[in-house]
Design a protein that fits this description.
- It comes from Diceros bicornis minor.
- Belongs to the cyclin family.
- Pfam families: Cyclin_N.
- Keywords: Cyclin.
- By secondary structure, the protein is mainly alpha-helical.
- Among the domains are: 103 residues, Cyclin A, domain 1; 101 residues.
- Strands 3-4-5 form a three-stranded antiparallel β-sheet.
- Helix 5 packs across helix 7, helix 10 runs antiparallel to helix 11 and helix 10 crosses helix 12.
- The two termini are 37 Å apart.
Length: 347
Amino acid sequence: MDSGARLSPQPSASEVSSVSRPDETALCCLLPPPAWNISLPAATRRFPEACQSGGAWIPVPSARGPQWGAAPAPRAAGPAPEADVSPQPPQQLFGPEGRPVPCDWGGLLDERRLVAHLKLALGREARLWRGGQPQVEICDAFQEVVLQLLRLKNIFHFSQSTFNLALTIFSRLLVSVKVKERLLQCVTITSLRLAVKVNEEEELIPRIKDFIKHYGSGYTPNELLRMELAILDKLHWDLYIGTPLDFLTIFHALVVLGWPHVVELLPQRNPSLHVASLTRQLQHCMAGHQLLQFKGSTLALVIITLELERLMPDWCTPISDLLKKAQISIEQLSRCMDLVKQQLRSF
């Protein structure tokens, strides 16, 4: 996958990038130097395609989190107008006792490998997470643009983790820099395009003109490419943070492996469908600006906690185990839970 960009001649580093109008600045931040003189992270410089056209490209992540079922079948690169953004459960894999079990790209998972996935995600989160809230004047607009993103028709068959990464990129940016309300839509769509470049296979990434046709008809290719560079510059070209969906999937798998009887309590006894349902709750909560003060791991554990409270009387035991593994305090969990309950009232 490409990991750099070659753009048309750009202003010097001292000039400000324009996005939606010639007189509007992109996040009030400077454009990086032209692509042929840009200083990229070492992981990015290793890719010889870094100077090809098509915008800013990110290396493929080296690790993938667990999922319920086998690796998904290849998706068609072209649009399918009737597709939607709802999570699609993968085909189930079953253990020796006939119960569905979690797997990753290396096969079936046991608790040791799940904990390894969790530690990897926690490490990425600790390195990149920055809590806070967006500026007061865009709080209401924040929820609206996030919900608009979640309502988009998934015509290119992007994975649910791609949409969750887009929300994470968008949220990280808003707690890092001030963004004018008129730029929020452009930032949201650009965050989705960056997430696609991180998560999706290269042959499934739509051309920028096709992407704009369906998701950003109010913008030109050059405006989106310049916004990509502005976002990457503010996030230090490092987008691969552990997302709330990563943690939700890991926590759910740990509960099912450690307490197998919970499968009997799930809708249709299907962990994959259950994760899909919890994912919708999680992403609705990510539209609440007050929850940006909490890490994605905390938010995901709250969603799991509320669900286990509803499903099983002995929910305290698995939650205590997850709190210890994720190194989350009960005080953090309690504060986050109060706000999640408020947010879910509108779900």
